[in-house]
Structures are given as C-alpha cells and as structure tokens.
Amino acid sequence: METLVAWGLKRGNVRFAFLGDHANSRGAADMGLFPDLLPGYVPVTSPGAFVEYSGLPATPGKTLPEMLEAASKGELGALLVVGANPVAQLLVDPAVLKNTFVIVQDLFLTETAALADVVLPAASLYEKTGTVTNTFGDVQLVKKAADRAGVKPDFEILVRLAGAMGADVRTLVPFGTSGVTADLGQTRGAQAGEADRHAVWLAANNLEPKLSPFDPLAVLDEIERLVPGYTLDRINLFGGNDVRTEPGFVPVSALTAQDITRSDQVVPAHDGLFTSGTLGRYCPALKELELHQAYELTETTAD
C-alpha cells in the first residue's frame, strides 16, 4: 500500500479514495455516530446549533471497547445494537453481555441477535425511503420498492424507542402542515379527488405535506437545517441524481481528536468484493458465487 501511494503521489492526475466497509458508513458518521461528535462532526462539548435540543450529553459517550468493558463489569444496564454483529465480526465473548439487557435491530438473526433479550426486525435499504451517503460524500435518494410485514425502518424504531423512554417525538422532527384542515380524501376515497386537489394546492404554495415524524422529507429538512455541509440540490436529488455534500466540510481535526482514539471506533470488516460480512450467508447468489470461485481455484491449482 505504501508503495502504491508513493507512486501515485508522483503523478499529477492520481487521487486516492479510502472506501468504507459498510453501505452508508459515511452517512452514519456524518449523522453523529461517533461518541464524542454530533451530526456534522460537531463536538458534543460545543453543540452549536444543536443546543436547541434538550437532554444532549455534555460529555462524550463510550467507545465500543469501553462499552464492552463496562458490560463485563456488570456496569452496562442495556445495549442497543443496530445493524452490527460484534459477536461474530469482532469475536466478542457472549459471556461479556450476560448481565446486560441486549436489544438488536437487524435484518437477520445474526449471532448477536441470537443471544439478545429483544430482537427488532429492521427493514432493508429498499423497504424504506430516505438517503444514503457514499464515501465521497455523494447523497442519493432511496425510494421504497416493497413492503414486508413485521419490519420497520431503523429511524422509526429509534423514534418509537425514544417515545417509550419518555421523549416527546413531536420535538425531534418538526412535522405537520400549518393551516391544513382537509383530511386529504382518506374518508371519501381516492375517487373523490380530494387528495389530488390538495396535492396541487400544496405544490402551488410551495409546500410539502409532512404529516408524521417518520416522514423522510421532514427528516431531510431537519438535517439540512442543522447539519453542516448538508445543504443539498434537491432538484437533482429528487431527479434521481447523486448530490455532493459541501466539499471539505468534514474537519480532519475532529476525526483525529486526542481524547478518543478513532481506531477504537472504526473497525474494518475486511470483507471481500463479493461478500457482506456475516450476512453474506443469507444470500443464495453470493453463496453460489463463492462455491464457483472455490471450484475454479481448485481446478487451477490441480492443473
């Protein structure tokens, strides 16, 4: 790797991009996945515009090693695992979590989900609507292609958990359309045309109906309002194109903070091109490809 980088630096037309292991890992980081950073890489100790949200932590949270250490000592009452499988991927000893109430929300019954006290089935990428951000900071709109009974989007699960813990979900994401008194035609049926007429009125007044805190457009509005770098070109975004976040908005100083070691938080999965970590075994096509590659390798070696 060092030789490749040294070679590239001598050429004027070469750029490097370090790719993340998991889909939307950049988007998760942008939205405040690090324990010491809020969305937009804003330090929790200096929340800036986020100060309007009550109950924000004044000090950084725990890193993954710190969480596991606290669990081993019986000092971690509950642990929520979202779309991760630390038992298999990080070889976490299940005994470490025996005194911790474990909640897992995931697509499949992974090794971590199998030992959880509660499992919440999560929707896959194309069973929900929202956005994803690739490693380069390009945002793309994702539209729901199908419904599956019994699953919910990750965001809705988190909001419902917050509501069950006493949070007022109406203060989390602004929603509702001021001045709207019509029922959008639900009580009279689509044939009445009320929903269509109301949609025309909203468009004419440059308004969008945001009738639920789970509305992805309401969430996107809140992201654009507060998260640095996420002022997006919506015409291109809604047209199906990828839209860049503001170049260079990720401060390197925030990612190399001295008080928390980033290597403790970002653990590479070391997945191959045609694998998806521990979830690849649930995909028949990937399993067939793996068998095919193994057969081809055996034949070549024998020759």
Approximately what portion of the residues adopt beta-strand conformation? 5-15%
- The secondary structure category is alpha/beta
**How large, in whole angstroms, is the Cα Rg?**
23 Å
Beta-strand segment tally: 8
What's the shape? globular
Q: In percent, how helical is the residue content?
A: 25-40%
Residue-averaged pLDDT, rounded? 80
SSE order, one letter for each helix or strand = HHEEHEHEHEEEHHHHEHH
> Which stretches of 5+ consecutive residues score pLDDT under 50?
none
Number of helices: 11
Please outline the major beta sheet.
3 strands, parallel
Write a short abstract of this structure:
With 303 residues, the chain is of the alpha/beta class. It has helices spanning 2-9, 25-30, 64-72, 86-89, 111-114, 154-164, 194-204, 216-226, 234-238, 252-255, 284-302; strands at residues 37-38, 42-43, 78-82, 101-106, 118-121, 130-133, 138-142, 243-244. Helix 4 (86-89) links the parallel strand 3 and strand 4.
Please give a handful of descriptors for the protein shown.
alpha/beta, three-stranded antiparallel beta sheet, 11 helices
Question: Which SSEs are present, and which pair or pack?
Answer:
Elements: H1 2-9, H2 25-30, E1 37-38, E2 42-43, H3 64-72, E3 78-82, H4 86-89, E4 101-106, H5 111-114, E5 118-121, E6 130-133, E7 138-142, H6 154-164, H7 194-204, H8 216-226, H9 234-238, E8 243-244, H10 252-255, H11 284-302
Parallel strand pairs: 3-4, 4-5
Antiparallel strand pairs: 1-2, 6-7, 7-8
